[in-house]
Design a protein that fits this description.
The chain is mostly helical and about 140 residues long. About 50% of the residues lie in helices and about 0% in strands. The termini are far apart. The N terminus is likely disordered. This is Cytochrome c domain-containing protein. InterPro entries: Cyt_c-like_dom, Cyt_c-like_dom_sf, Cyt_c_Planctomycete-type. It holds the Pfam family PSCyt1.
């Protein structure tokens, strides 16, 4: 009986905490706070500050002028405009929809190939940043 009482008290405490979050969502996940950087945090993602550094460190080796990824696919990741132009085969980013954006499909490994090709996978945090950025409209911010 005592275990059941503890469980009930914890359940009530958890629900009260959830109620406080729902009553005042501005305190739950303020943009730029710790929740903004946590996976699933949903904070505002910046192309210049969050996305481009990932592309520089993980993708530009192959997807820049004179590199094999650009020669094969036509995808130039040196600029926002190059990313949004896509490849010779079509767009890479569908603003607002990371589920169908080829950028996300490829880095998440949901296709026959995974990017970066023959390199270390992106971290879960890097993938989440790209996913959030696309879902937020893939803005040049």
């Amino acid at each position: 009986m005592r275990t059941r009482t503890r469980f009930t008290l914890w359940s009530v405490a958890a629900l009260l905490g959830l109620g406080m979050t729902l009553a005042n969502p501005s305190q739950a996940a303020a943009p730029g706070g710790a929740a903004a950087n946590a996976p699933g945090g949903g904070g505002r993602v910046s192309f210049a500050e969050d996305v481009f550094p990932i592309l520089q460190n993980r993708c530009l080796e192959c997807h820049k002028a004179g590199a094999p990824g650009l020669a094969f696919s036509g995808l130039n990741l040196e600029t926002y405009e190059g990313l949004m132009q896509g490849t010779r085969f079509g767009p890479v980013v569908v603003p607002g929809n990371a589920m169908v954006s080829n950028l996300n499909v490829l880095v998440e490994g949901r296709a026959g190939i995974r990017m970066p090709h023959n390199r270390k996978r992106l971290t879960a945090c890097e993938i989440e940043i790209l996913r959030n950025w696309v879902n937020q409209g893939a803005k040049n911010n």
